[in-house]
Structures are given as structure tokens and as C-alpha cells.
Amino acid sequence: MISRNVTIKNSVGLHARPATFFIQKAMAYKSSVWVEKEDRRVNAKSLLGVLSLGIVKDMEITLIADGPDESEALEGLCALISGGFGE
Question: What's the domain count of the chain?
Fold first, then answer.
């Protein structure tokens, strides 16, 4: 299991469209992936779970992956976030 802290930089945070891109990317990996904000942890492959965290611009979250491609999962998701979800 590995984890990495990332800061959301896109203007709307992790809502609707960006969250959909994030979840689609997470689902491409075999590993289990979670998003953690403060004391709450949700499945990164669940739209309702991710949206329920209310992640906004400049908020720091922790991505956690566990499985056969955990490193690739974190690299891919961090790249998506740092790229601003293509905005």
C-alpha cells in the first residue's frame, strides 16, 4: 500500500466533470484506490463517494493505492490532477 498527498489546482475542484475523469482513470487500474480528506476515506472508483468529500480548489487530499499496479495508479492519478483535468 502506498499513498501520496496532492493539492487540487483546477478552478472547480473535484466536482462533476473533473470527478468523472478522475473516476474513469482510477477504474483503469486493478489496484484498490481511495481518496482521503481529513478523517474521511472513500473509494476513488465511486462517483458519489468522491463527490461527497466536497473537494475544492487548493485543498490537499491523500491518494492511497493497494494492489498489483499501485505505483502506476498513483502516478496516473497525480498526473491527471497536476494537469488540471485538462482545463
Answer: 1
Judged against a pLDDT cut of 80, whether residue 86 lies above it is answered with: no
Active-site residue flag, 15: yes
How do residues 51-69 score in pLDDT, each as one tens digit? 999 999 999 999 999 999 9
CATH number at residue 47: 3.30.1340.10
Using the CB atoms, write b or e for 9-37: b if 16+ within 10 Å.
Answer: ebeebbeeebbebbbebbeebebbbbbbb
Could you tell me the residue range of the domain that residue 74 belongs to?
2-86
Catalytic residue among 6, 12, 15, 59: 15
Average pLDDT in the chain: 94
